[in-house]
Amino acid sequence: MASGGSAIRGSRVGAGPMGEQDHGIHAERIAISYWDALGNETVRHFAANLPEEEIPEIIDCPQSGLPAGRDKENPPELAKLEPYKTHLAYVKERRTPEEAEQILEDALHQLRVRRGTVKPTK
Asked: 61: exposed, middle or buried (C-beta count within 10 Å: 0-12, 13-18, 19+)?
């Protein structure tokens, strides 16, 4: 004689007539379409009783990876990518020695004010 759990053979534990319609495949759903800048449409399903403010206005489109909005006529714009900067471009952006000296003086002054060795000037 075999002994086991208390569930009846063939039944799902926790399943019953109460509450199944509120979750899973039985829940009422609404379909909302999102469009990206390339014209790709993505349909997402949300619970019908979900408040409108909890449904996102913008999502990431799975086809293109771009942001997709609910307005088909005015989808979010393509992201503007900056071109790759060479090392020379970064060197040209460096500060002049006078600016670097002024930044250092300001930082040292702030440290001295925090320590209390100098009175604040402002």
From this structure: buried
